[in-house]
Amino acid sequence: MARVKGGVTALKRRRSILAQTKGYRFGRSTKKRAAHDAIVHAQLHAFAHRKDKKNDFRRLWIVRLNAALRTAGTTYSKFINMLKVKGVVLDRKSLSEIAHNRPETFARILKSVS
Asked: Most buried of 50, 52, 66, 96 (most Cβ within 10 A)?
């Protein structure tokens, strides 16, 4: 069996890795080993933080709702309970957008629920 030299494959692999680290600083953008480590770490954090982002936004929506509700004289937990009792199916995202951008509409929703 003939010997196969790996220069072409190794070069292709190295170029692929270095292309992914374009814009990184220092050896992470020029050295294959450091670049590979940087890619692995970046992908791990990207996956985890995509999952965390959903929780972060939900927290933001709840904080916005609670701030708007406190100015109206009630709290977030009481408001959510009133929504469930009345059978209103607006989610926290849309409620926080309404409270943040259209306070008069949010006041009407609050009045209709309470």
From this structure: 96
